[in-house]
């Protein structure tokens, strides 16, 4: 069947809500093919493939071929003729590659799936999974290959006992990470690994029922390294630990290009999570990557108990430590804890007792879902190494930034730095449509049609429009009262009709404003937009070649308070687009959120040929997820100090009902003169939100004196 001129619409379907069973839909096929096995199977119909890949990454099992929950074997095992792992290593040195004697081992670590398929590779199921197994003599790596992965991967879990026959031994692959197992106090045999495959030889895997496992086999007990939040600061960098906590924040799922693969469309999916355990007021900050557990990863939500095993500690200068996933990390949430080996750990039992003292309505006030989130916070000094750029935001030219914006994939997140000058600042606190025209007649999506529908503060609904003489308001220690006294009410109006009207207006008022080089002005008579422009921006705008007008704040940029009533809607909103349509998918709209005011910053590249718009979305409350771990050194709330610190000083504390008065936007904008002719380095967070929505947010702005390039 050929379909031409197919178009898509963002609107909801009128047909799908009436479908209750997708499999019951008729297939449009030739007569006589209705009962075709291929058509009824969950496999691609063309290109001779035998399996599907997950839509957004290659690490998650996808399709009906991945069996799980199969019963363990209850057959009688002959364990009188088994060999030990210690014997395998010594035998391998004597060039023996296959062994008739079986193995009896317990799984103590399980890695996520690895897909190694590529164009031209003639392997039906190019998958691989590592396990660490142990017996009474020590530990060794076991590799599950190809066709055995769909059959066994979901059946083999930490604690599972295996009886292995017809396995092979190969030299260990040296370029891979290994789990930390020192706490087992067992010898690790790292020179060889056990290989299980469907051919050469045909491996036989028997999953032993837990009821059949005997103490005299001498298999080691599982050991965990649970740590609480109060101990985290004392742990060394890269140390592995296990944690349990009550989730208070779940970020949206994002994607990042896999560092280990250079091929196209190879991404990791990850999200940020906060979880508390009662040992301190500070939460665990968790960077959790998909661990081949899609059902768990996509259902992490506030108010659930989360266990993450074998997380790695990341100690960072200037920010609180956080934990990131390793290849061996596994996650478990409420509903998946039953029967897990860790349930009897003392730390887990202590945590459960603490949760019994909590009240849901109080914890719910501290919860949030989705929105922009980036961690760790940028350091005080921007350092760029020409030799080792790992972990840094690469400094790129404006032309390279344009290329990144054009090639950004759905929910892909990247961090870049650009050098140049800030030439214009606009304060936005009311929505504008994507059709609004900028000074050059180009479409400027300051904020999309789905963007913020409310202003936060009533005091911002009708702000006093003001202009300021820019003789000396650049000092950061100017008090808000003094800044207010420097402002006077504007006597002119401005429209969005383009550069021509703006120039005529400037000419007519040149005498009245000759003592003001530039200043604050309302963008439109009917809007609440204040702005500042540098004195040279009008000329530079005429001479530059391109203005990348991608900046703006979207609904997807702002986190929402979690409620049980809106749980399904919020989960659907914060996750990636669904892999498959199901009748349960909610058609309810995402609950609106009050839109905090934000600043639209125009950055002119150092070559003065390309400018880009980026939104600056300051942290204003201490209970925001983005405030966790944020260095809160006091500053004077000037435009530059706010861009540098990322927050308005001091942060308001809703929990203590503090009456802190935050600076008004015009108070901040009146200090924007210090940006005039100032070279800066701007760290930007880019994320493709789907459709034509590309999020460009300012992470931090550095003066050139705060930049070090080695």
From TrEMBL:
<feature type="compositionally biased region" description="Basic and acidic residues">
    <location>
        <begin position="490"/>
        <end position="502"/>
    </location>
</feature>
<dbReference type="InterPro" id="IPR040893">
    <property type="entry name" value="RADX"/>
</dbReference>
<protein>
    <submittedName>
        <fullName>RPA-related protein RADX</fullName>
    </submittedName>
</protein>
<dbReference type="InterPro" id="IPR012340">
    <property type="entry name" value="NA-bd_OB-fold"/>
</dbReference>
<feature type="region of interest" description="Disordered">
    <location>
        <begin position="463"/>
        <end position="514"/>
    </location>
</feature>
<dbReference type="Pfam" id="PF17659">
    <property type="entry name" value="RADX"/>
</dbReference>
<dbReference type="GO" id="GO:0003697">
    <property type="term" value="F:single-stranded DNA binding"/>
</dbReference>
<feature type="compositionally biased region" description="Acidic residues">
    <location>
        <begin position="503"/>
        <end position="514"/>
    </location>
</feature>
<feature type="compositionally biased region" description="Polar residues">
    <location>
        <begin position="463"/>
        <end position="478"/>
    </location>
</feature>
């Amino acid at each position: 069947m050929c379909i031409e001129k197919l178009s898509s619409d963002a609107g909801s379907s009128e047909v799908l809500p009436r479908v209750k069973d997708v499999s019951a839909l008729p297939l449009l096929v030739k007569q006589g093919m209705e009962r075709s096995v291929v058509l009824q199977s969950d496999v691609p119909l063309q290109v001779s493939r035998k399996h599907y890949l997950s839509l957004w990454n290659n690490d998650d099992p996808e399709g009906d071929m991945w069996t799980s929950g199969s019963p363990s074997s209850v057959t009688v095992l002959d364990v009188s003729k088994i060999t030990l792992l210690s014997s395998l290593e010594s035998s391998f040195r004597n060039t023996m590659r296959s062994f008739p004697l079986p193995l009896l081992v317990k799984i103590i670590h399980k890695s996520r799936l690895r897909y190694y398929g590529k164009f031209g590779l003639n392997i039906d199921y190019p998958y691989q999974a590592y396990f660490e197994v142990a017996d009474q003599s020590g530990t060794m790596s076991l590799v599950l290959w190809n066709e055995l992965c769909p059959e066994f991967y979901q059946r083999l879990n930490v604690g599972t006992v295996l009886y292995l026959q017809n396995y092979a031994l190969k030299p260990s692959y040296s370029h891979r990470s290994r789990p930390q197992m020192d706490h087992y106090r067992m010898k690790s045999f790292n020179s060889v690994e056990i290989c299980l495959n469907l051919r050469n030889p045909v491996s036989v895997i028997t999953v032993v029922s837990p009821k059949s496992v005997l103490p005299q086999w001498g298999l080691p007990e599982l050991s965990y390294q649970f740590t609480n939040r109060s101990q985290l600061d004392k742990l060394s960098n890269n140390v592995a630990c296990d944690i349990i906590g009550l989730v208070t924040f779940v970020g949206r799922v994002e994607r990042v290009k896999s560092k280990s693969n250079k091929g196209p469309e190879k991404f990791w999916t990850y999200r940020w999570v906060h979880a508390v355990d009662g040992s301190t007021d500070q939460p665990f900050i968790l960077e959790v990557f998909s661990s081949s557990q899609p059902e768990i990863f996509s259902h992490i939500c506030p108010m659930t108990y989360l266990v993450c095993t074998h997380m790695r500690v990341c100690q960072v200068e200037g920010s609180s430590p956080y934990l990131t996933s390793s290849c061996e990390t596994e996650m478990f949430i409420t509903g998946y804890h039953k029967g897990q080996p860790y349930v009897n750990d003392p730390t887990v039992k202590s945590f459960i007792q603490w949760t019994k003292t909590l009240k849901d309505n109080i914890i719910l006030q501290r919860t949030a879902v989705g929105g922009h989130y980036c961690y760790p916070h940028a350091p005080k000094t921007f350092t760029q190494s020409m030799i080792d750029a790992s972990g840094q935001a690469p400094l790129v030219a404006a032309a390279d930034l344009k290329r990144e914006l054009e090639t950004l994939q759905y929910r892909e997140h990247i961090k870049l730095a650009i050098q140049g000058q800030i030439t214009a600042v606009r304060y936005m606190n009311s929505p504008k449509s994507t059709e609004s025209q900028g000074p050059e007649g180009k479409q400027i999506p300051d904020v999309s049609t789905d963007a913020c529908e409310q202003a936060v503060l009533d005091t911002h609904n009708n702000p006093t429009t003001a202009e300021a003489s820019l003789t000396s308001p650049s000092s950061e220690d100017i008090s808000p009262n003094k800044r207010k006294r420097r402002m006077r009410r504007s006597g002119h109006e401005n429209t969005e009709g383009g550069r021509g009207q703006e120039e005529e207006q400037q000419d007519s008022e040149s005498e009245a404003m000759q003592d003001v080089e530039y200043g604050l002005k309302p963008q439109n008579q009917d809007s609440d937009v204040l702005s500042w422009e540098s004195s040279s921006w009008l000329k530079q705008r005429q001479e530059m070649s391109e203005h990348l007008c991608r900046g703006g704040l979207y609904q997807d940029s702002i986190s929402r308070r979690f409620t049980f009533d809106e749980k399904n809607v919020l989960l659907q909103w914060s996750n990636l687009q669904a892999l498959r349509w199901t009748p349960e998918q909610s058609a309810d709209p995402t609950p609106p959120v009050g839109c905090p005011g934000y600043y639209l910053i125009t950055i002119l590249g150092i070559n003065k040929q390309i400018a880009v718009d980026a939104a600056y979305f300051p942290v204003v409350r201490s209970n925001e997820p983005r405030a966790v771990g944020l260095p809160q050194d006091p500053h004077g709330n000037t435009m530059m100090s706010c861009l540098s610190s990322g927050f308005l000083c001091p942060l308001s504390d809703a929990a203590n009902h503090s009456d802190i008065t935050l600076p008004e936007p015009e108070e901040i904008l009146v200090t924007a003169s210090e940006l005039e002719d100032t070279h800066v380095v701007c760290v930007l967070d880019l994320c493709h939100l789907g459709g034509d929505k590309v999020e460009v947010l300012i992470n931090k702005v550095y003066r050139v004196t705060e930049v070090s390039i080695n």
